[in-house]
Specification:
By secondary structure, the protein is an alpha+beta fold. It has one domain (about 20-194). The protein has helices spanning about 20-25, 30-40, 115-135, 145-155, 190-194; strands spanning about 20, 45-50, 70, 75-80, 85-95, 105-110, 160-165, 175-180, 185-190. Strands 1, 2, 3, 4, 5, 6, 7, 8 and 9 form a nine-stranded mixed β-sheet that branches. A hairpin with a 4-residue loop joins strand 8 (about 175-180) and strand 9 (about 185-190). The protein is globular. The two termini are about 25 Å apart. The model is unreliable at about 55-65 and about 95-110 (pLDDT under 50).
């Protein structure tokens, strides 16, 4: 994400979310530390595929737009009284303009157990692949190795977790918005709503 800053951003309140490389950090110790760091600071963590910066110029893998992102719903997760997972870092701002109304309501996000299972099991699978490769003296999986895993991961999570950048006139209040999910809802950081 590019920013054209006119002044000095105030740390940590100027940070809306953290963007992390799926091919290079997902399923790693550094990725686990990043998740903990984001949870501690109440910052949403968003995974992206990006482009193959380490591949050859003749790579057969076409670049994938960096705008396709997946919100890590396991960061800041707590169980509520009904034994449902509730994300304590992110809220969804429903865009009611589709219902001929300009009122936006902030609602708590209840994360699907299937999404938690998908993220957790994919994390474990990728972590195991990285561990086995390391035991064999090999480097971590390449971008090309991770591309099909990203596609499977991306197809397995709900629309709420698919996050696109904020666009002009999409959300009424943008101060806390970190992006728009695949259902067209404005997704906001709770920390920025305070």
């Amino acid at each position: 994400m590019e920013a054209n800053l006119v002044g000095t951003p105030i740390y940590p309140t100027a940070i809306k979310f953290v963007l992390a490389s799926y091919p290079y950090l997902f399923g790693t110790q550094q990725g686990e530390e990043l998740r903990a760091w984001c949870t501690e600071r109440k910052w949403p963590l968003v995974w992206f595929l990006g482009i193959d910066n380490h591949g050859s110029k003749n790579s057969s893998i076409s670049p994938v737009g960096q705008n396709h992102r997946i919100l890590d719903a396991t960061v800041g997760l707590e169980k509520n009284n009904q034994n449902q997972y509730q994300n304590q870092i992110v809220t969804s701002q429903i865009n009611h303009s589709q219902m001929n109304s300009w009122n936006n309501t902030i609602v708590n996000v209840t994360v699907s157990p299937a999404d938690i299972d998908t993220i957790t099991s994919d994390w474990e699978k990728i972590s195991d692949i990285r561990r086995v490769r390391k035991e064999k003296g090999m480097s971590g999986p390449s971008y090309g190795d991770m591309l099909p895993k990203w596609k499977t991961f991306s197809a397995s999570v709900s629309n709420f977790l698919h996050l696109e950048p904020l666009r002009s006139r999409t959300c009424v209040e943008t101060t806390a918005v970190i992006g728009i999910n695949a259902d067209g809802d404005c997704v906001s950081s709770r920390q920025l709503l305070l």
